[in-house]
Each structure stands twice: as C-alpha cells, then as structure tokens.
Design a protein that fits this description.
The protein is α+β, with helices and mostly antiparallel strands. Helix content is 22%, strand content 32%. The chain has helices spanning 53-59, 61-70, 75-88, and strands spanning 2-7, 13-18, 39-41, 45-51, 93-99, 104-108, 116-118, 123-125, 134-138.
C-alpha cells in the first residue's frame, strides 16, 4: 500500500491510497482504499490506511479518525482512541494523517508501518517505531 496525505498552501487537505491487495480477493470485493474506511479527507483532516482491508473496513478507520477530529479531538487523541479500539478488536492495520493545523500523526496495531513525512522544514520517518500499537505525532 502507498498512502499520502497533504495540506496545500490554501489549507486544503487531500488523501490518496493505492493498494495491490494481498491477493486472491473474491470477485466483486471493493477495496478499503476505494471507500472512506481506508482513505478519507475533509477540510478538518485527512487519513490514509494500510493493513488488512477487512480490518480497516470493520473499524471504518479513516472516517472514524476524521469524524473524531471534526468533533473536537486533537489528531493525536483521535488516532489514540481509534487505534486502541482497533487493537482491542485484534485488527492488523496502520494509518497516516494530518489535520488543518498541519499536525501530522501516524499509528499502527501491526508490527510494521513505514512512513515518511515533511513538515515544510523537517523530513523524518517512522523507522524508530517499536512493535505493537503505537501513535506518534510531529509538527
């Protein structure tokens, strides 16, 4: 999966997710990347997900995080709450996101989430994340 979220100089947020799937999906299956469960952006936040598609769909992860930000949670708090629930449900997934203030967050319940980010002044990555559920932010 390749995911991206971006905030432009006019304050607009976009999210995009491309996936090849894990293979052998049933005919007619719609990918989580093609629906708000796995890829969603509004004027408040944008999220792109990776992991087991059915887990992402069951959690409706991208939309859930965006709705929580819209309802007043910080991006980090929205990630923490959503990923804690996903972890409790034994989901295998991860996500990257940003909000309208430019805050960046990422998190996972899976063993690995590889991501990089650019704040406009700093370039870094998630390679220092340990195994297990984690949420991190940057700005």
């Amino acid at each position: 999966t390749i995911g991206v979220v971006a905030l432009d100089n006019q304050g607009k947020i976009a999210a995009g997710t491309s996936t090849g799937g894990k293979g052998f999906e049933r005919v007619g299956r719609v990918s989580d990347s093609a629906m708000p469960a796995g890829n969603y952006a509004t004027s408040q936040a944008g999220i792109s997900c990776t992991g087991i598609g059915e887990d992402i769909i069951d959690e409706c992860l991208a939309a859930r995080i965006v709705v929580r930000v819209t309802d007043g949670l910080s991006l980090k708090a929205a990630f923490e709450r959503s990923l804690t629930e996903a972890h409790q449900n034994n989901r295998d997934l991860g996500a990257i996101g940003l909000d309208a203030t430019g805050a960046i967050a990422w998190g996972k319940t899976s063993e690995v989430l590889l991501a990089a980010y650019h704040t406009g002044g700093k370039i870094a990555d998630t390679l220092d994340m340990n195994k297990g559920m984690q949420v991190a932010t940057a700005l």
